[in-house]
């Protein structure tokens, strides 16, 4: 059987795959430009990036394989929140999300001998109104750095969620149900 390659360096995605009994044969992070295009919606960005990552890793691997890629994007309306790289970005994201509904889009793409399959999973969340102490405490934890929208729902930010409608694992970084279906449909195990 062709190898299973995860086109992501995210330890959260590795953990989510393990939860459904899957272990990649190789992990190869893609190196693509993740800058949103002018006018691009959060859903469009998640789909474009997941496809580009899968295609880039599949073409660099050079042999038949199951190449799985994903990208998670947090959006408020048409606004795309950044993958927070600083405490200031985490603060700005949390202040924007405080007391508001938002959506998390995770694009999943699979390159296989059967071609490219892809999907975007949308999850809607409502955050409680965050106090200054909530935000300061979360920033001090360091959990928001490197996370889309400046938070990780699997950690302390889980206490901010009043309501979630959709896939919890998708918000973490990989919709496990849809991923398992894609792999099965492509002939993986």
From TrEMBL:
Cofactor(s) essential for the protein: a divalent metal cation
Reactions the enzyme catalyzes: UTP + H2O = UMP + diphosphate + H(+); dTTP + H2O = dTMP + diphosphate + H(+)
Claim: Hydrolase is one of the keywords in the record: yes
Record-linked CDD domains: Maf (cd00555)
Record key words, sorted: Cytoplasm, Hydrolase, Nucleotide metabolism
EC number: 3.6.1.9
Subcellular location: Cytoplasm
Superkingdom as given in the UniProt entry: Bacteria
Active site feature: 71
Function as written in the Swiss-Prot or TrEMBL entry: Nucleoside triphosphate pyrophosphatase that hydrolyzes dTTP and UTP. May have a dual role in cell division arrest and in preventing the incorporation of modified nucleotides into cellular nucleic acids.
Record-stated family: Belongs to the Maf family. YhdE subfamily.
Name of the featured protein: dTTP/UTP pyrophosphatase
Source organism per UniProt: Asticcacaulis aquaticus
